[in-house]
Amino acid sequence: MSKLSAEAIEKRLLHFPDWDYYDDAIHAEFEFDNFKDCFSAMSRIAFECEALNHHPDWSNTYNVLTISLSTHSANGVTEKDFKLAEAIEAIVEPEDEDA
Ligand SMILES: C[C@H](O)[C@H](O)[C@H]1CNC2=NC(N)=NC(=O)C2=N1
């Protein structure tokens, strides 16, 4: 899968307001009510990652989940990252699905 240009990434990000592009990856931070809700979302995201065979660089501090997506094999951002970002959005912001 080929790496997208910075211009293509910025254009796509218009549909992903939670995400920013820098350092050859797209990044987002999600805040939950508590650790349980955060870890529950992480578990659900983990299953999507396995289904897509694409995995995030992420960290969790109590109720905050920080995610960076890039395609290691392409050394940058590809369509796979946007597919996973879409799946993550559907889990953490389900009310935005039809937006
Ligand atoms: C062998 C396996 O298909 C690869 O390691 C996959 C798995 N998950 C991956 N995840 C990410 N983010 N980038 C990759 O290049 C990648 N490659």
TrEMBL record:
Using the UniProt record, name the top-level EC class of this enzyme in a single word. Answer: lyase
Q: Which InterPro entries match?
A: PCD_sf, Pterin_deHydtase
The EC number(s) given in the record are 4.2.1.96
- Catalysed conversion reaction: (4aS,6R)-4a-hydroxy-L-erythro-5,6,7,8-tetrahydrobiopterin = (6R)-L-erythro-6,7-dihydrobiopterin + H2O
GO MF, one example: 4-alpha-hydroxytetrahydrobiopterin dehydratase activity
Record keywords, A-Z: Lyase
Pfam families documented for this protein: Pterin_4a (PF01329)
Gene3D superfamilies, per the entry: Transcriptional coactivator/pterin dehydratase
NCBIfam families, per the entry: PRK00823.1-2
HAMAP family in alphabetical order:
Pterin_4_alpha
**Could you say which protein family the record assigns here?**
Belongs to the pterin-4-alpha-carbinolamine dehydratase family.
Q: What name does UniProt use for this protein? A: Putative pterin-4-alpha-carbinolamine dehydratase
Taxonomic classification: Bacteria, Pseudomonadati, Bacteroidota, Flavobacteriia, Flavobacteriales
